[in-house]
Amino acid sequence: IAGITQAPTSQILAAGRRMTLRCTQDMRHNAMYWYRQDLGLGLRLIHYSNTAGTTGKGEVPDGYSVSRANTDDFPLTLASAVPSQTSVYFCASSAVRTGELFFGEGSRLTVL
Amino acid sequence: GQNIDQPTEMTATEGAIVQINCTYQTSGFNGLFWYQQHAGEAPTFLSYNVLDGLEEKGRFSSFLSRSKGYSYLLLKELQMKDSASYLCAVLDSNYQLIWGAGTKLIIKP
Question: A84 vs chain B: nearest CA distance in angstroms?
Answer without folding.
Answer: 19
